Amino acid sequence: MNHGRGLSCLTAHSHPKSFRSTLLSTQKRKSAVILGAQWGDEGKGKIVDVLSEKFDIVARYAGGHNAGHTVIIHGKKIVLQLIPCGVLRPGCKGVIGNGVVLDPAAFLNEVKKLQDAGLPAHDPKAGQLFVSNRAQVILPYHRMIELAAETAPGRQTIGTTRRGIGPAYEDKVHRNGLRVVDLLNSSLLRTHINNACHEKNTIAHALFGTEPLDPKQMYEDYSRLAEQIAPFVTDTEYLLNKALDAGQNIMFEGAQGALLDIDHGTYPFVTSSSSTAGGAVTGTGVGPTRIDTVIGVTKAYVTRVGEGPFPTEISDATGELLRARGQEYGAVTGRPRRCGWLDIPLLRYSNAINGTEWLVVTKMDVMDECAEIPVCTGYKIDGKVTDIIPADIRGFESIVPVYTTLKGWMTSTEGITEYDKLPQLAKDYMDFVQDQSGAKIGVISTGPDRVQTINLPEFEALL
Ligand code: GDP
Ligand code: IMO
Ligand code: MG
Q1: Domain tally, the chain
Q2: Mean pLDDT for all residues in the chain
Q3: What is the C-alpha to C-alpha distance for residues 270 and 258, in angstroms, rounded to an integer?
Q4: Ligand 1 mean position to 321 CA, how many Å?
Q5: Section 424-440 average pLDDT
Q6: Is a pLDDT exceeding 80 seen at residue 10?
Q7: Are both 87 and 152 inside the same structural domain?
Q8: Which of 164, 198, 231 is the endpoint of a domain?
Q9: Which secondary-structure segment (H or E) carries 78?
Q10: Is residue 84 in contact with ligand 1, taking CB distance under 6 Å?
Q11: Which of 180, 205, 231 is a domain's end point?
């Protein structure tokens, strides 16, 4: 594998000294965005946890509790939805950025989960977990409207997680949303809930015949929740920029995946936020010049939950085998994930729109029993081969994937921690993915546990 390309842009000396006078010129800079390169569930949670050892802060920048990030530490499983996975490391701070839509009850449930697991992040006095005062709040009418719209006859079903994510972002863009800072202002909260309930109840009843929500009860519930989250709330833009000034390292934790991005994904079968690397900037208030690298997480194959196009989907027994071996069931909704072969055109597209320099390939062990591994290297559309992703969702229907079939390694790779110990055919697969995708492979994951990980030396040296 060629690990000798493109590192010079990541060293400290390539940035003018005057840019941040407090930073020692010899210090390595390593703020990084880590994101899903596919349709989500690539194993970001595990990888963020593994890499967070090297970072002072992990900041979530988009989405909400539609995400489900699984971390397994010495056999103990924890699924986080809103709280960045970095907080599982003592001393690593977690920040929920302004780009996130926050369900206060879901947040407090997660805090309780950390408390039950004996982790300090549950205690705001520990100064380990922070919530942006500019994040938008998800309220019960967001869920009500989404549920009604998703199940209404004649409407396009997206297969959402039904957490109210889309309607909360709609209100944000409509300049009609409630931000965390407003949640903490009692009289503003009361007025907002009264007005919003009047409007949403009327719309939902007229369109879907939905029973109205009670604003009085909602105000009481959310006042209580506001009190509990208040100690976590701060100006996270300042916190993050000051941390960078002080030479600290930040990992920006993506949720969902590039192909679920509201602009660049397979619209309309997407989520409602900017899950791509650009979202890290708008979703935290840290400028692009302060982010050093982008790390994309991809499975060795592809999965998708919910509706939408999927050119390399496998509908035979091999798909079942991958689902069973990979435990491909949604971490949030428990829905079976659709499985398919690795799709290079989509991976290249993802790498391009994110500026991905490094790839992490997860779930290699899941393919241990595949005698042959087809990889899609191009699309045949109307008889012509291309790797351009159609913008028009209907264009996906005419895609015939062009496959290159590689030989499977047919031996266990589970738990391997050294690259040299991988079977040659598994190395060949990784070489193929690296060469075809154009991004360097920095980490290979060989099992769900934190320790079942291979760090490639050049990547390790970078961090
Ligand atoms: P995320 O949303 O990207 O954080 O991913 P999820 O947690 O939703 O789904 C990934 C699933 O794959 C989880 O059950 C992980 O425990 C599991 N996982 C992660 N990496 C590996 C791996 O290398 N091998 C196997 N077998 N499972 C993995
Ligand atoms: P993580 O962070 C996989 C999918 C839903 C649906 C679409 C829109 O765990 O990778 P939404 O509720 O966001 O409006 O649903 O997006 N989706 C995900 N799929 N992983 C996720 O997050 C997802 N978050 C949303 O299944 O198709
Ligand atoms: Mg997930």
Answers
A1: 2
A2: 92
A3: 9
A4: 16
A5: 97
A6: no
A7: no
A8: 231
A9: strand 76-80
A10: no
A11: 231
